[in-house]
Amino acid sequence: MNTNWIKVFIAAILEIFWVIGLTHAYDFWTWTGTIIILVVSNYLMITAAQVLPAGTVYAVFVGVGTAGTVIAGILLFGEPFRWGKIILIATLLIGVIGLKLVTSDKAGEGAAS
Predict the structure, then answer these.
(1) Are 60 and 99 in contact (CB under 8 A)?
(2) Which end of the chain is more exposed for a tag (fewer CB within 10 A), N or C?
(3) Rounded to 10 degrees, what is the CA torsion of 29, 73, 19, 90?
């Protein structure tokens, strides 16, 4: 796997933490940590999108982040488990994985300009 795709997946995992932080931060240190994670996450996504197709990078970033955030809500914060949520998350991840599989790692025309 290309190092830029690794950046995208790390950025998406960090997205889970900063989204949780936006909801649960309560003092200076938790807000500071949330902001630092948000900045690092977006920096990794932006630097990967300079090389990889931006639309695909964003779809993977948001898809993995959304799925992780919903799963974390269920496992860590007592949100109700619903099969409908799980089926929709699986559908989302299938779409994101499919999009990643059909996208080449090479930058497209005009990406360097």
Answers:
(1) yes
(2) C
(3) 150
